[in-house]
Amino acid sequence: MDGYMARLREKWGDSLLTVLTVLLSVMLFVLAPLQALGYVVFQAFELGVAIVMVACIFVLSGSRTVVAAMAVGLVMLVIGAILRVRSPSMFELDLVVASWLILTTTLGLVVARVVFGGGRVTHHRVMGAVLLYLTIAVMFAAMFRLIGAIAPWAFSGMTMADSPALASELIYFSFATLTTTGYGDIAPLHPVARSLCNLEAVLGQLYPATLLARLVTLELAHRERYEADD
What digits encode the pLDDT tens for the residues 64-74? Predict the structure, then answer.
């Protein structure tokens, strides 16, 4: 079984990074805004993405611990989605958000190992770097929602109510913080929320420089090995 998984990982591992990047991008930049406008049901696609994510992570990591963590997140997401259909409330919403925090944290750790690990730099690895950046934004968006559940006044300009627009607003604010755009329409008021915003902004600034340095180092190492073999 382990040998089969290793071969599967070697054959499809890099391609899965691209698949996950495309799926997450569609969810964040297409479906979330459409849901805010009332055109789509975001939860259905969200569940599908989570299932594909667990399968991809199983192939990429080969770790039972990682897969167990992803499975816990998926079960929480399914339960939260079912309860929201039957009787929507903030509790079910927070259960879904907590599940995404588990999923994205686990995904980020696995993808970071692949992106910053040894090996040749390919376009799939570059897509993996984009995936990691998007994952960081989703992870912080989930944490912002959980803080808002504890302290509804944690953010000005964003109401923590169960509405179709909430996911889009959280994603928007998270990316505005990660990229240090700072439009000023939404601002953190709670000390923990401000601390998380500071952390996300620092990560957003350090990530591109760290990534570029690592990719250049990997490419130079690959060329040196190639020239040595010749």
Answer: 788 888 889 98
**Other Cβ atoms within 10 Å of 5 Cβ, number:** 13
- Round to whole Å and give the CA distance between 119 and 114: 9
The C-alpha torsion from 104 through 109 and 110 to 115, rounded to 10°, is 110
Nearest to 127 by CA among 63, 226, 50, 211: 211
Tokens encoding 19: 């698949």
**pLDDT, tens digit (0-9, with 9 covering 90-100), for 12-58:** 557 888 888 998 998 899 888 888 887 766 667 777 888 888 888 87
| 3-state secondary structure at position 155 | strand
Residue 31 to residues 36, 41, 171, Cα–Cα distance (Å): 9, 8, 12
Distances (CA, A) of 151 to 104, 158, 159, 171, 210: 23, 12, 11, 19, 34
d(CA 104, CA 223): 33
DSSP 15: H
d(CA 161, CA 148): 9
Whole-prediction pTM value? 0.88
**CA dihedral over 132, 134, 135, 137, signed as positive or negative:** positive
- Beta strand ranges found along 75-229 (DSSP E): 155-156, 187-188
